[in-house]
Amino acid sequence: MSLLNLDWIVENFNKESFTFFEIGLAGIQQSMSFELKKRIPKGKYCTFEAAEYWHDLNEEIALRHKIDYYKYAVCDIDGEVLFYPSLTQNGQVHTLSSSIFELYKGPYCNTFGKEYGEPYLTKSIRLETFCKENNLTPDFLHIDVEGAEFKVFQNMGEYKPKCIWTEIGGFKHYNTETSFEEVNSYLQNIGYYLVHIEETNLNDALYCLEDFEITEYK
């Protein structure tokens, strides 16, 4: 679960013209968008989830709370992509860890007991394409797409959010052929700096554009 400090966001962003993207939210009622809308009700919230398991519930809640919900896998492809649905973890029902990548099955792997079901095709879109089609640029991007984060970052184009909260601990669990070091280097090369790594689990990190002024993150 994300430990993003929502009070910090309220402190650092314009509450009259705030746009929040959440990619890979699973259940919308437990999402950062759902909680943040209570604090910044005038903001625009665009949420994305590709797993079919969540669609009916998410659509109903999103409509009721005026949150925009899109049934896309955001990645590097405009069209369709093969998607691997999360089923269980350590023998318990677990629908929170689906991915466009297969679980890593190599030596010394640790996927924490995750099991996937049969993959299926789902709609996919690049972030740049979505932003261009909807004339939107996110102020803040919250992303947890089980190892596919790099694919999203490589396809933002000119629509770079001021800040990004991203999972960084999942690359080794999937056949991503990437690493935190590669992602960190890429983000720095396109103008971001690392603000914070969540010390409780070392799985999440906050990046901000170098020219965006912020208060200390706590």
Describe the structure.
This protein is an alpha/beta fold and 218 residues long. The protein has a domain of 121 residues: Vaccinia Virus protein VP39 (Rossmann fold, 3-Layer(aba) Sandwich), CATH 3.40.50.150. Helices cover 22% and strands 27% of the residues. The protein contains six helices and 13 strands. The strands form three sheets. The protein has a seven-stranded mixed sheet with strand order 3-2-1-10-11-13-12, sandwiched between helices. It has a three-stranded mixed sheet with strand order 4-9-5. The relative contact order is 0.16. The model has no long low-confidence stretch (mean pLDDT 92).
Strand neighbour order, sheet with most strands: 3-2-1-10-11-13-12
- Pattern of helices and strands: HEHEHEEEEEEEHEHEHEE
Structural class: alpha/beta
Instruction: Tell me the overall shape.
Output: globular
- Rg measurement, Å: 16 Å
Largest sheet: 7 strands, mixed
CATH superfamily of one domain: Vaccinia Virus protein VP39
* CATH class category label of one domain: Alpha Beta
By CATH, the architecture of one domain is named 3-Layer(aba) Sandwich
Percent helix = 10-25%
CATH topology of one domain: Rossmann fold
